[in-house]
Specification:
mainly alpha, Four Helix Bundle (Hemerythrin (Met), subunit A), two-stranded antiparallel sheet, 16 helices, globular, rotamase, PTPA_sf, Serine/threonine-protein phosphatase 2A activator, Phstyr_phstse_ac, cytoplasm
């Protein structure tokens, strides 16, 4: 059994205090050749992305996605409001009529409207928290990059990586934590922000028929997404099924969740929690899609794809045979590192700025955060 992560120390090491002389700059592409990809894995930017994957996974563990923003941190609600506004703009920019399979041209109109909204609203959030406005363009660029490609009319894992970076930038700049009460962002806060993002993006994808970036098709985990599976499996890992098969005597007599005898026993644990195999049951998917990111992503697949699940989603079908969510989660993290952060076609589009995700060796993190030495320009 692995030792729990000391999130406070980890966060401080990877996202140190913002220096007063920090020099923000608009993110630029720095990965042009295979040698750049190798260097990327030694950078402060890469270390911060790894931190964020671990950070969100730890905080959302055993947590259900909230049904509303009630009780969530004000900064979280402000960021979520930006995402909800972008979803609202979709209603104001209907798709252009006419036969076409992918890439409705109205997406370009929506994208540029969304870009303007982001720059305005992110600037307002930054100003309200007394953070230097110099940070606006660097931070906003990651959210803009998370909308998809206005050139290729597609969306994929590289774009949701930019949203993870945007979330991390908000965290680093102190836009999410509540300084007055000393309250830090919680698992519920994280799930609310990411749920609003995925809801908005799915609306964009279906409205404007965006093509899957990279055309992974059935050979990828999902045509468009990877992060909701990491978050969703993290939510379920370690929940009551840990007692099963490991220490029968330790099973609690009373479950914290009601059992669901109407569901197929092989798809539900005796504690009323879905197993990975539950992706085959629409009844279970509908029960859990609103509070669990994994099942929310599976529900979207059933919405946009037809035919047997094992044919259009063979990788997810194979994963459904894994017994425990902790193994699913660890496997998905390894896959993310290999297929997203380790693939040139994906990360070549990621931008590196002056402060949030600098192109500098992690050993020089302090200097990199200030925009100083440690740069390895090519």
């Amino acid at each position: 059994m692995t030792e729990p992560i000391d999130l406070a120390s980890y966060r401080k090491a990877v996202f140190p205090h913002l220096p007063p002389d920090a020099r923000f700059s608009a993110p630029e592409k720095r990965i042009h050749i295979s040698e750049d990809l190798r260097f990327f894995h030694s950078t402060t930017a890469y270390a911060r992305i790894q931190f964020l994957l671990n950070y969100v996974s730890e905080l959302v563990s055993k947590v259900d996605a909230p049904g509303s923003a009630d009780g969530l941190l004000p900064g979280v609600q402000s960021v979520a409001a930006v995402l909800d506004r972008l979803a609202g703009v979709v209603d104001e920019v209907p798709p252009v009529s006419g036969p076409r399979r992918f890439g409705n041209p109205a997406y370009k109109t929506w994208y540029h409207r969304a870009e303007t909204e982001i720059l305005t609203m992110v600037g307002e959030i930054i100003e309200a928290r007394s953070v230097t406005l110099d940070a606006k363009d660097e931070l906003a660029a990651y959210l803009i990059a998370a909308l998809g490609s206005v050139q290729r009319l597609d969306f994929g894992t590289g774009h949701e990586l930019s949203f993870l970076a945007f979330f991390g930038g908000c965290l680093f700049l102190g836009l999410l934590d509540d300084e007055k009460s000393g309250t830090s962002v919680s698992g519920e806060d994280i799930l609310w922000i990411f749920s609003r993002y995925f809801k908005m993006v799915r609306k964009v994808i279906t409205t404007y028929s965006l093509e899957p970036a990279g055309s992974h098709g059935v050979w990828g985990l999902d045509d468009h997404f990877h992060l909701p599976y990491i978050l969703g499996s993290a939510q379920l890992r370690g929940v009551e099924e840990k007692f099963e098969g490991e220490n029968a005597a330790a099973k609690p007599k009373v479950s914290s969740r009601p059992s669901r005898p109407s569901k197929a026993p092989s798809m539900m644990s005796v504690y009323g929690m879905p197993r990975p195999s539950a992706v085959m049951s629409m009844e279970i998917i509908n029960d859990f899609k609103e509070k669990n990111m994994y099942f929310g992503a599976i529900a979207f697949i059933y919405q946009v794809k037809k035919g047997p699940f094992f044919e259009h989603s063979p990788v997810l079908y194979d994963i459904s045979g894994v017994q425990y969510w902790v193994k699913v989660h660890s496997g998905l993290l390894k896959m993310y590192n290999a297929e997203v952060l380790g693939k040139f076609p994906v990360v070549q589009h990621f931008g590196f700025g002056g402060v949030l995700y600098p192109w500098a060796e992690f050993a020089a993190a302090g200097a990199a955060a200030a925009g100083g030495t440690g740069d390895k320009s090519r």
